[in-house]
Design brief:
Strand content: under 5%
Strand order of the largest sheet: 1-2
Helix content: over 70%
Length: 156
């Protein structure tokens, strides 16, 4: 079984877990802690996506080893997203850019997570080739999966 197949099987489990295990926060404190943890994961995603975007745009030199490392981190973080978004904080007034649609549309949100997991796994494989054109295309795939989620589930 190749790496991408393993990732696809793991993400199938994520889709099921996300759509079944969502729970409402039990208090404002619980909602705040869940929000803080969720933000931390998304901050880490952004810190790993930033250099990839800069490489794809030619703002910094493309480095296949750095791409592979950042893609691996993004992939690992994507596998955590279901856990860190399972607490529905929409019933409490917490400062967040997350839209309530995350918990109203759990299967659709889980598919977005799955897309990021698959795109980042693909980028890891492509980075090993050192083919700059293919790497830039795979970075664009990761960016597209991030942007699609932002469009639907993040406040402007």
């Amino acid at each position: 079984m190749n790496y991408l197949t393993k990732v696809m099987l793991a993400t199938s489990a994520i889709i099921t877990a996300t759509s079944v295990m969502a729970e409402s926060a039990k208090s404002l404190d619980h909602a705040q802690k869940a929000t803080d943890n969720r933000k931390a994961v998304f901050t880490l995603l952004g810190s790993n996506m930033g250099p990839l975007g800069a490489m794809a745009k030619g703002k910094i030199p493309l480095n296949a080893k750095a791409v592979e490392k950042n893609a691996e981190r993004i992939n690992q973080l994507s596998l955590m997203l279901a856990d860190y978004t399972k607490t529905d904080t929409s019933g409490f007034k917490v400062k967040t850019e997350a839209l309530d649609k995350i918990w109203q549309e759990p299967k659709a949100f889980a598919k977005r997570i799955n897309a990021l997991t698959e795109a980042s796994a693909q980028l890891q494989l492509v980075a090993k080739s050192a083919d700059k054109s293919a790497i830039k295309q795979a970075i664009a795939g990761v960016g597209k999966s991030c942007g699609g989620c932002h469009d639907d589930y993040k406040a402007d």
